[in-house]
Design goal:
The chain has 345 residues and is an alpha+beta fold. It has two domains: 3-95, Up-down Bundle (Methane Monooxygenase Hydroxylase, Chain G, domain 1), CATH 1.20.58; 100-177 and 194-297 and 329-345, Alpha-Beta Plaits. Helix content is 43%, strand content 21%. It has nine helices and eleven strands. It has helices at residues 9-23, 32-68, 74-95, 117-136, 166-170, 230-234, 258-284, 324-328, 333-344, and strands at residues 106-112, 140-148, 154-162, 175-182, 191-202, 217-222, 238-243, 249-252, 300-305, 311-314, 320-321. It has an eight-stranded mixed sheet with strand order 2-3-1-5-4-9-10-11, with helices on both faces. Strands 6-7-8 form a three-stranded antiparallel sheet, with helices on one face. The longest helix is centred in the N-terminal third of the chain and has 37 residues, at 32-68. It is flat and about 70 Å long. The two termini are 26 Å apart.
Length: 345
């Protein structure tokens, strides 16, 4: 009952029933891409319906407990109310993620900005922050490509993040992240400002819109420059793909096989081509102007100040906290939620 006022459970169940009936068609897999899309929609609706049925059952049970309570169950009622409120708060955030790709996986890339060693160290700090956040959400992560810094840190890294709403959440992090601190690499220990650029792409499967033909690309293989053991050092496992029309270059290197690296590189290329297509649409459709932000250096979204005071502030929402260490340890959900609510308003 509580959930029915927020989420039309009957309507979603009806949609689910129709899709399941459609999936029973004997010709379903004649078009594998459409079939896969349909099965994903069914899985998504099944998760939503199951979650809201659970919340609704808890609300009904709690209502019944309150009606018969003579004061003996006040502690238990309080505990259940707190738990139910947490679940509803989380679902409220999930309901803000209504984009076509919000519920899917994400490809996260971090680029060190100008500033040499300090910026490369800052990029590695952000990598650690996002990996810890993803772990706290139960998401699966995999580093697809990493370019180490000259002295320390990283020049860039691309990470695959798998989990429900991974893209919807991480898309709030697109833009420039600015760090102000006393540089550990400056012999005079002066204050430095470093920048890193965060790019987030939805993981795009094969579809009719993004077609990559063999003649459109050049695939090169080479020895990986990163860590990974003897297999990486001895074999040509790293892959570089060059897309002729756009000039996009994608690399993937790790300890896995050349075939797997090629598949991962194609996945990244497909997502980058999708992003370019979306930017072109945003430039030509007036309704999207001001809503779609390109991933570029001028779009600074957040500052992390470690000196002369401790503060992390998001410039889009004005949300801030003085607990900088917790944020750098991956506690960024409050920033993501504030951004989602700000966009909804």
């Amino acid at each position: 009952m509580l959930s029915r006022s927020i989420f039309d459970l009957a309507s979603k169940q009806s949609q689910l029933d129709l899709l399941i009936k459609e999936a029973e068609s004997p010709t379903l897999w004649d078009d594998p891409i459409s079939a896969q899309s349909l099965m994903k929609k069914i899985a998504s609706l099944e998760r939503d319906v199951s979650t809201w049925e659970s919340i609704n059952d808890k609300a009904v049970g709690l209502k019944e407990l309150i009606e018969i309570d003579d004061g003996s169950f006040s502690d238990e009622i309080g505990r259940q109310l707190d738990q139910l409120q947490k679940e509803l708060d989380q679902k409220e955030i999930d309901l803000l993620l209504s984009g076509e790709y919000d519920e899917g996986n994400a490809l996260l890339t971090i680029h060190a900005g100008a500033g040499g060693t300090d910026s490369q160290d800052w990029a590695e700090m952000l990598e650690r922050m996002y990996l810890r956040w993803a772990d706290s959400q139960g998401f699966k992560t995999e580093i697809l490509d990493l370019s180490p810094g000259e002295e320390c840190g990283i020049k860039s890294v691309t990470i695959s993040v798998e989990g429900q709403f991974a893209y919807g959440y991480l898309s709030q992090e697109i833009g420039v992240h600015r760090l102000v601190r006393l540089s550990p690499f400056d012999s005079a220990h002066r204050r430095h400002t470093s920048f890193a650029l965060v790019e987030v792409l939805p993981e795009i499967e094969d579809n009719a819109e993004i077609i990559i033909r063999p003649e459109d690309i050049t695939i090169e293989v080479y020895k990986s420059s990163g860590a990974g053991g003897q297999n990486v050092q001895k074999n040509m496992t790293a892959v570089r793909i060059i897309h002729h029309e756009t000039g996009l270059v994608v690399t993937c290197q790790n300890e896995r096989s050349q075939t797997q690296n090629r598949e991962s590189a194609l996945k990244v290329l497909r997502s980058r081509l999708f992003r370019m297509q979306e930017e072109e649409r945003a430039d030509t459709v007036s309704e999207l102007k001001g809503e779609f932000k390109k991933m570029e250096w001028g779009n600074q979204i957040r500052s992390y100040v470690l000196h002369p005071y401790q503060m992390v502030k998001d410039h889009r929402t004005d949300y801030e906290t003085g607990n900088t260490q917790a944020v750098l340890d991956g506690d960024i959900s409050a920033f993501i939620e504030a951004s989602l609510k700000h966009k909804a308003q």
